[in-house]
Amino acid sequence: MKVIPPEETHYPLQPDGGRPDMSEHDKWLAQVQEETLEPDLPIIDPHHHLWHFIRPESEHRYLLEDLLKDTGSGHNIVKTVFVECSAMWRADGPEEMKVVGETEFVNGIAAMSASGTYGDTRVAAGIVGTANLNVGARIGEVLDEHLKVGGDRFRGIRYLATHDPHPDVRNGYTEPAADMLSSAAFREGYAELGKRNLSFEGWCFHRQIPQLTDLARAFPDTIMILDHFGGPIGIGPYADKREEVFEDWKKNIAELATCENVVAKLGGLNMTVNGFNWHKNPKPPTSEELCETTRRYFEHTLEHFGVDRCLFESNFPVDSVSCSYNILWNSFKRLTANYSADDKAKLYHDNSARVYRL
């Protein structure tokens, strides 16, 4: 059976319909090989996915053995955090409760990893699930079930807010309304997170960052984690407006950073929605090319959030549309080549351990 991404699933981070056939894609990625930089530096990867999607014509899987192939490619990945991707929801039971199946699925993989049978990396030491916060306070029952089946690994919720009115930009599988983050029902559901010491992953597009800022200010005691730099779009109507988008994004990021309860993940810029089009080139980028092309996004975010509120992320396997795992982390290490040992420890390990209570 040919293994390709499920084009008909509403996975939010594949706006152009997914990756090429994996075997051909692996050959493409293999054209660029590099020695691992700073291979002993301990890393917690705070953002990856696990899934197995099956369709009559195709299958797409990224399970423990696939992740370990990436994490074992050279860098010292000691722990990881799983983030929801609409996989393995329950087939039966109440509609709102079906999402808990994903937490059950990932907690089982985490238990496999914790046995030590598969090496020293502790996969899914933290788990972020999903829940429809738009239903208001009754979502508390779903959150409690997540906590029950996720045990001491369950840490928070991501409910996608990614919305853009242009048809060339695929919105999140949650089909969010443009003003969802501001709605009374959503905020009633959001309030249930703080009661349980759960965090919220903010995944939106760049024009929506002010909505995240307003939400963070309304709930200052709830930790919010900005995913993927707030999604600067580089396709569709934004394809020829990179500088305009960047200036708008800069302003919004600086304002969001004034919220002390918000931390920022540094990564997730190599998706097709970001418009760098690495996947269309004859060869994938080197780590130096990745670093220099996206440097200003990292440096601006670090300038405003500071090293105590930033954490590098892989966003794999989604970012593998553009580069390999080893190349990606090498690009981060090039960026921080002149940072102090203390700052590197925070950005690669300590901040993730603190934010996700690992």
Characterization of this structure:
There is one protein chain. The chain is α/β, with parallel strands linked by helices. It is 35% helix and 15% strand. The chain contains 10 helices and 10 strands. It has helices at 22-29, 64-71, 100-114, 140-150, 184-195, 209-218, 242-256, 287-305, 325-335, 341-355; strands at residues 42-48, 51-55, 58-62, 76-83, 122-129, 154-158, 199-202, 224-226, 262-266, 310-312. The chain has an 8-stranded parallel β-sheet. Helix 7 (242-256) runs parallel beside helix 8. It is globular. The chain starts with 21 loop residues before the first helix and ends with a helix. 50% of the residues are buried. Mean pLDDT is 93; it is low at 1-21.
Query: How far is the first residue's CA from the last residue's CA?
Result: 38 Å
Biggest β-sheet description: 8 strands, parallel
Instruction: Specify the helix fraction band.
Output: 25-40%
Count of helical segments?
Answer: 10
Residue ranges: pLDDT <50 for 5 or more in a row? 1-21
Overall mean pLDDT: 93
How many strand segments? 10
Structural class: alpha/beta
Order of helices and strands: HEEEHEHEHEHEHEHEHEHH
Q: Shape, please?
A: globular
> Strands of the largest sheet, in order across it?
1-4-5-6-7-8-9-10
Share of β-strand residues: 5-15%
Q: Report the radius of gyration as a whole number of Å.
A: 19 Å
